[in-house]
Amino acid sequence: MITHADARGSLTEVFNPAWGFHESPMVYLYEFTIRPGKAKGWVAHQQQDDRIFLSRGSVKFVLYDDRPPSPTYKMINELVFTEQNRALITYPCGIYHALENIGTVDALLYNLPTRPYNHADPDKYRLPLNNDIIPYRFDVTGG
Predict the structure, then answer these.
(1) Percent of the chain, pLDDT > 90?
(2) What's this model's pTM, rounded to 2 decimal places?
(3) Residue 6 falls within a domain, yes or no?
(4) 124: which of 42, 43, 63, 78 lies 20 to 30 Å off by Cα?
């Protein structure tokens, strides 16, 4: 993501359909934060993709593929993004994901999932940060 900055402030595009980033339209948007030294996850979805944009802070994105037919089945991916190196990334259905704030300020992120959140029947499957299924360990609290 390119950030345009001058003496007045900055501007960063978050989502533009012209990018061809994802075939599903934007139907829901929410903002969330992660405090320094904390992590959130593990979460997977069966009916939606998450599309996450990092706006502020430094965050480690950790992904675990739990889809048996996938060529990346059982693989871990770590990605680090900062407000100087922003990103819009997609977590497809069946990918467990966790986020760790590795910076010194609250991280600010936006999610543009492919389905609105259903409070009565949430499409969220959670595991503790450190568990016996995902071969990855966090040294932080939260979850």
Answers:
(1) 67
(2) 0.84
(3) no
(4) 78
